[in-house]
Design goal:
Distance between the termini: 32 Å
CATH superfamily of the largest domain: Aldolase class I
Helix content: 25-40%
Shape: elongated
Oligomer: single chain
Order of helices and strands: EHEEHEEEEHEHEHEHEHEHEHHEH
Strand order of the largest sheet: 13-12-11-10-9-8-7-14
Radius of gyration: 21 Å
Number of helices: 11
Number of domains: 2
CATH topology of the largest domain: TIM Barrel
Structural class: alpha/beta
Bound molecules: phosphoenolpyruvate, manganese (II) ion
């Protein structure tokens, strides 16, 4: 349930509403809007009696019941766009933030060269995997903490904030020491203990959609993080598994446009995993922005043929530099 206060409601009116909510052993969370404040009520049971009593209070304009099961992530609860600040880079509300870098950190030269090149081309953040979830246990699974150190060095060199995946609850503290943005990978979207652990951390979270997750399951995963007090979540559509095998995944742009309606959280698109083919990355990156995405995540590698993972979907440094002016031109038209 949300309580929409009148434009001229006083601080005393707001405090009285919060006190009434607390009397019912529920939690009230205030969103400060441009013209009025909104109180979101969380917990159970939210009774009709409480609704009626709130409706009659001074300064209250309207009380609306929230129909979605993801109470904190729904736009009904928080009508304005959430802007997530990742070490100074603002994601949401129509931004066109680009996170670029290799699937996995492989060596100092590889990550440094990539970082310098993507920064020069106009990327806003550096991505790079240290702990890699691989379908086969025999594939390269990342350099671990050494990779985190190299990422941090690349950040010092370029000023780009870094995003990297964390795979287990016990690694959250370690990865959060280095990363500006914690990535939850598709395979871990429903690892609820991991979600709660990043929910307790102070770092913003990039929540990728699960391989076969419905839109609602994805939002409920965001809810797990938010319910622990961390509301700084960026969603990432990275393609879902469908009957189609001509491409690695099917990038679900419906979900991007739908997310703008149903949630206040920012959303970015990952056309690299979404298509699995480097030559489809540019068209789907632009399509993602046109569908309303607040940014992109793009895999870039200095020598994709030699990449330890996801080479076929990685852009070369040159192809990435060709993409960026188009991203910027389109962003200029859209916003
Ligand atoms: C990645 O970003 O390299 C990755 C493993 O992505 P996903 O979890 O979407 O497969
Ligand atoms: Mn990858």
């Amino acid at each position: 349930m949300v309580v929409i206060m009148q434009n001229n409601a006083t601080k005393a009116d707001l405090d009285a509403v919060l006190a009434r909510v607390a009397e019912h052993n529920l939690r009230g969370s205030v969103t400060v809007g441009e013209s009025q404040n909104i109180v979101g009520i969380i917990g159970t049971p939210i009774t009709v009696a409480l609704q009626e009593s709130l409706e009659s209070m001074s300064g209250v304009r309207e009380v609306i019941r929230i129909s979605r099961p993801y109470k904190l992530a729904t736009r009904e609860f928080h009508p304005l766009d959430t802007i997530v600040d990742v070490s100074g880079i603002k994601v949401g509300g129509g931004s066109a933030v680009v996170m670029a870098g290799p699937c996995a950190v492989e060596s100092e030269t590889q990550i440094m060269n990539t970082a310098i090149a993507v920064k020069k081309a106009g990327a806003h953040m550096l991505r790079g995997g240290a702990f890699k979830p691989r379908s086969s246990p025999y594939s390269f699974r990342g350099m671990g903490e050494e990779a985190l150190k190299l990422m941090a060095k690349a950040r010092t060199e370029t000023g780009l904030p870094i995003v990297t995946e964390v795979m287990t609850p016990t690694d959250v503290a370690l990865v959060a020491e280095y990363a500006d943005l914690l990535q939850i990978g598709a395979r871990n979207m429903q690892n609820y203990q991991l979600l709660e652990e990043v929910g307790r951390s102070q770092r913003p979270v990039l929540l990728k959609r699960g391989l076969s997750a419905t839109f609602e399951e994805w939002m409920l995963s965001a809810e797990y993080i938010m319910n622990q007090g961390n509301h700084n979540i960026i969603l990432c559509e990275r393609g879902i598994r469908t009957f189609e095998t001509a491409t690695r995944n099917t990038l679900d742009l419906n979900a991007v446009a739908l997310a703008k309606k149903r949630t206040h959280l920012p959303i970015i698109v990952d056309p690299s995993h979404g298509t699995g083919k480097w030559y489809l990355v540019q068209p789907l990156a632009l399509a993602g922005l046109a569908a309303g995405a607040d940014g992109l995540m793009i895999e870039v590698h200095p020598d994709p043929d030699k990449a330890t993972s996801d080479g076929p979907q990685s852009l070369t440094l040159e192809h990435f530099a060709e993409l960026m002016p188009k991203v910027n031109a389109l962003a200029g038209i859209l916003h």
